[in-house]
Amino acid sequence: MAREGNLEAPTRHPLDWLSDHFYDEASLNKELERVFDICHGCRRCVSLCASFPTLFDLVDESDTMEVDGVDTKDYMKVVDQCYLCDLCYMTKCPYTPPHEWNLDFPHLMLRAKAVKFSKGEVPARDKFLSNTDGLGKFAGIPIVTQTVNAVNRATATRAVVESVLGIDKNAWLPQFATTKFRSGAPESEDWPVKDGATTQGKVAIYSTCYVNYNEPGIGHDLLAILNHNAIPYVLVEKEVCCGMPKLEQGDLQGVAEKKAINIPHLAKLAKEGYAILTPIPSCTLMYKQELPLMFPDCTDTQLVKKAMWDPFEYFVARNRDGLLKTDFRQSLGKVSYHIPCHSRVQNVGRKTADLLQLIPETKLNVVERCSGHAGTYGVKKEYHAMSMKIGKPVFKSMANDEPDYISSDCQLAGHHIEQGMQENGLKPAEMAHPLSLLRKAYAI
């Protein structure tokens, strides 16, 4: 007899993405029907994203009002609404493994996306948006940077971009920096290495595409905090995109190509005793979860997984080791802090909130719900309105008590929230990454 639900923590199976079975469409549709039938009978996830309302509407509007009445051609409507946030798996679903029903909705959606990609059905727009390295390097040319930024700001040109590329003209788009983080980052001072009971005493920075190409200030804030705490650091010798944008569209071979470049450099640092810090949660998650599940037998990938830290996870552990300075000289007032999905599913707790709460005369409003941006999902013409709808409860919660600052570890989510608050007529507040707030509190 099947149990009603799990009493154990959810566990993940390795992703069988190299097998022929993984890409067999008949097998995929059979599994989609099985899982959709379970979800239809449960419906606990209806409030998380558009995948579940889309599925339930398809079922309820079918002739049988069951999953068998839904045309398999419509299954992809559900898949296309999934942006792999993992919240259904980690926070809602009672039937994840080790439950005998063995339900992993996000990785089933990933498999469907991979089948779609293998059939050549992914739009050129999506491939363009996922090429973060190419976009960053191209936009890094000074005259190109100025042009791209001007295009992103101008209403008339954004309308053209929408018609040509399908990028919503109203969606916030990041600006490109004139100087990349990796080009402008100073070398570390020669601090002695002080290992703690749980933390390595030296740090390697995997800067991420976003920090390197778009907002290098976040990276500089991180370096300033490390320097203030006398923690020596290095930058990863060579890095490319973590592969999350490729993963989101099902380009698993593209993910593997990125991994082949990054992992040797990261594994070398892990073997040398470095803690590896990544200031963007999606990138951290790739190395902590997705790549280890894609390459379960790769020793170096598993080694990097153990060495990878979210910056605030590291700082809180460093504080517990008695090695973090708490000489905060500036209060932050009222801060509305959003925990992004890709931070929540790392199962490290509310580490950013824990540290910000140590700052004197700082009042924290913690919001724990999806902002709706979800990587490239929120900028696409067909999904932008839905992303704003998903984020509306977050926008309202972030405006509670009229904060001085709004903040999210995911800077894309932060800008999305800022836009949502503005569009909903809520009182604006200064948007700043948590690392920027921590640096401000140190007054450095």
Tell me the number of strands.
8
The rounded distance between the terminal residues' Cα atoms is: 61 Å
Quickly count the helices: 22
Low-confidence stretches: none
User: Which whole number gives the mean pLDDT?
Assistant: 91
Helices and strands: which structural class? alpha/beta
Quick summary:
With 444 residues, this protein is of the alpha/beta class.
Index terms:
single chain, 444 residues, alpha/beta, four-stranded parallel sheet, 22 helices, 8 strands
What does this structure look like?
This protein is an alpha/beta fold and 444 residues long. The protein has 22 helices and eight strands. It has helices at 25-42, 51-60, 75-80, 87-92, 105-118, 124-130, 132-139, 142-153, 155-165, 181-184, 209-214, 216-228, 244-248, 252-271, 281-294, 299-307, 311-320, 341-344, 351-356, 384-398, 411-423, 434-442; strands at 203-205, 233-235, 275-277, 308-309, 333-338, 362-367, 405-408, 430-431. The strands form two sheets. The chain has a four-stranded parallel sheet, sandwiched between helices. Helix 21 (411-423) links the parallel strand 7 and strand 8. The longest helix is centred in the middle third of the chain and has 20 residues, at 252-271. The radius of gyration is 22 Å and the shape is globular. The termini are far apart.
Please specify the SSE layout and strand pairing.
Elements: H1 25-42, H2 51-60, H3 75-80, H4 87-92, H5 105-118, H6 124-130, H7 132-139, H8 142-153, H9 155-165, H10 181-184, E1 203-205, H11 209-214, H12 216-228, E2 233-235, H13 244-248, H14 252-271, E3 275-277, H15 281-294, H16 299-307, E4 308-309, H17 311-320, E5 333-338, H18 341-344, H19 351-356, E6 362-367, H20 384-398, E7 405-408, H21 411-423, E8 430-431, H22 434-442
Parallel strand pairs: 1-2, 1-3, 3-4, 5-6, 5-7, 7-8
Helix pairs in contact: 1-5, 12-22, 14-16, 15-16, 20-21
